[in-house]
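S2.1 Query sequence (Pyrroloquinoline-quinone synthase)
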Amino acid sequence: MAGDPRSLSREAFEARLRGLSVRYWDRHPFHVRLHAGACTPDEVRAWVANRWYYQRHMSQKNAAIVANCPLPEVRRRWVERILWQDGPERQDGNAGGEGGLEDWLVLAEAVGLDRRQVLDERHVLPGVRFAVDAYVAFCRTRPWKQGAAAALTELFAPDLMAGRVVAWRRHYDWIKPDGYAYFERRVPTVRAESGYTLDLVLTHCVSREEQDAAVAALAFKCDVLRAMLDAIDYANARP
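Output structure tokens follow.
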């Protein structure tokens, strides 16, 4: 409740959230190898194909947060994430060929994957499915504030994505240049989104119970991302 004497100050609450950067997936051994140029083409393709499953479910996750939120001003702002990911609709009712999902499919083709095989998800590992489905279920069943807090991994994402483009261009010159459109378009968008989401969580999670739940939600999201990499790393380490 508001006025909870146990509540953290805004600064201390933000520090706890940002402190979870040590659990983000950039420190996972697979991710370290991916950026160091130590992954084989098949490992890069495995990461892209499995990450598609995550990308495909982001609009459903965001729609769940919108559905659970009673505040029109938040719903109006949050729904922009769905529009960015899914892309615009043409007057004929078909997808406009833009948006995060289409950009990811271009990336898949740039690393040598067959678009049809990415779409039918034949390369998606059970562990990745389990982790992503758990994240969507979390956002459907938990209060919207916790869903928003879980999205705060975007605080740690922009620099990592910008660094990924630099690293991949240096180490994986076999990737077609048009494949980087997703990251190049996403970096400025996620920088803006992260600032808004952080302010939203800091403003609306006022009791200590809400603050602790927000921190736990962000920790859970970090675990989801690392579980995805655990599955990919394990599968590619086997003969």
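The chain has eleven helices and no strands. Residues 83 and 99 are 8 Å apart (CA to CA).
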